[in-house]
Amino acid sequence: MNILVLGSGGREHAFAWKLAQSPLCDALFVAPGNAGTAQLANNLAVAYNDFEAVATAIRQHTIDLLIVGPEEPLVKGIVNFLRRQPDLAQLRIVGPDEAGAQLEGSKDFSKGFMLRHGIPTAASRTFTVETLQEGLRYLDEHSLPVVLKADGLAAGKGVVIAETVADAQATLRDMLDGRKFGDAGNKVVVEQFLRGIELSVFVLTDGVNYKILPEAKDYKRIGEADTGPNTGGMGAVSPVVFANENFLRKVEEKVVKPTLAGLQQDGIRYQGFIFIGLMNVKGEPYVIEYNARMGDPETEVVLPRVQNDFAELMIATADGELDKVALQVSSQTAVTTVVVSNGYPDVYEKGKIITDLERLEDVTAFHAGTIAQNERVLTNGGRVLALTALANSLENAVRKSQEAARTVQFDGKQYRKDIGLDLIRYQD
């Protein structure tokens, strides 16, 4: 089987790493990929949002299975586009169509979906530029802090937690009147702030059947002790010590099952991953957000714990036969530390030479923002590497991942030194 993965980050490198281990995979392609995927697969110089070019690559390389990594092509309807090509009708695709991807593509849609189908979430209201004055009055009486979310995709930067009414009102004006996030901010969801512990649960579904993959906790802020601006993710841990069997059973009954039933009731055939961002509020799960794909860097701790043939899982998803596969999960702990460029998540430099990757031992280096040039690996993004360790204890996994982050070198290297330490304290 010839397999194509769309994307260029750590998530896609993790997909390629897992697929390359499968005897079902004859030829593996990643578009556009990075320096890490180039070691496992054939990188194609194809932008994942160029649907015509993707279709041409599928034909040219006789692709049997397509796995769409990032959210943007899903929200823009790549699955619908490919399904309209008569000669690609038999192509297996893992990833939802445009209707399903609206779970991530529109915060307003996902809120409405949760309310319709009785899925626990924070109370909220949505405002547009036409209802800005009403929104300002609403914020005047809202409890603090309050969460404001741009409706559309905003590269992970469209969520603001305001501590004062003045900040909340200024943010609402910036988003709606000032068009801070462009079209993504045509609507703004104003949401109740939930106090609790955050984690993510990942569901793989073929449209009817499902498997709940290992849960994970990520670290979004740039600074230690969760300080500074939000990022795409500075590290992750799986399993999550506070997500006990009782809590995960509640997640399945109160969130996962109603979500899948709701998609079916709404006539949406969803085949792919659903990332469910959750808040554990006094032992009860509340949905913060849905994503229509796997998370990054969560994928880099989830997949190392999945012991199944990943190609077999993907085929079963595309063929509607997930019920025939038993999910096998390692009891070991996975920890990833993300090494980033100086200045990230704001302005950062690219093209820095990365050294000492060959010195890493007992750790998997998933490339996130890298490029191969003249037999050297250079930085090519804000998040550069996700260094994943698997161990029999959380403490050992943290130690090995952090050791790897100290070992690799490039000019301006930054990383958080407290990944997983809060969970060690919780465990104690």
Automatic annotation (TrEMBL):
It catalyses: 5-phospho-beta-D-ribosylamine + glycine + ATP = N(1)-(5-phospho-beta-D-ribosyl)glycinamide + ADP + phosphate + H(+). Gene3D superfamilies: 3.40.50.20, ATP-grasp fold, A domain (3.30.1490.20), ATP-grasp fold, B domain (3.30.470.20), Phosphoribosylglycinamide synthetase, C-terminal domain (3.90.600.10). The keyword Nucleotide-binding applies. GO terms for biological process: 'de novo' IMP biosynthetic process; purine nucleobase biosynthetic process. Pathway: Purine metabolism; IMP biosynthesis via de novo pathway; N(1)-(5-phospho-D-ribosyl)glycinamide from 5-phospho-alpha-D-ribose 1-diphosphate: step 2/2. The keyword ATP-binding applies. InterPro entries: ATP-grasp (IPR011761), ATP_grasp_subdomain_1 (IPR013815), PreATP-grasp_dom_sf (IPR016185), PRibGlycinamid_synth_ATP-grasp (IPR020561), PRibGlycinamide_synth (IPR000115), PRibGlycinamide_synth_C-dom (IPR020560), PRibGlycinamide_synth_C_sf (IPR037123), PRibGlycinamide_synth_N (IPR020562). SMART domains: GARS_A, GARS_C. Its EC number is 6.3.4.13. Transmembrane segments: none annotated. PROSITE patterns: ATP_GRASP. Keywords: ATP-binding, Ligase, Nucleotide-binding, Purine biosynthesis. Residues 111-319 form the ATP-grasp domain. One of its GO terms (molecular function) is phosphoribosylamine-glycine ligase activity. Belongs to the GARS family. PANTHER family: PHOSPHORIBOSYLAMINE--GLYCINE LIGASE, PHOSPHORIBOSYLAMINE--GLYCINE LIGASE, CHLOROPLASTIC. This is Phosphoribosylamine--glycine ligase. It comes from Fibrisoma limi BUZ 3.
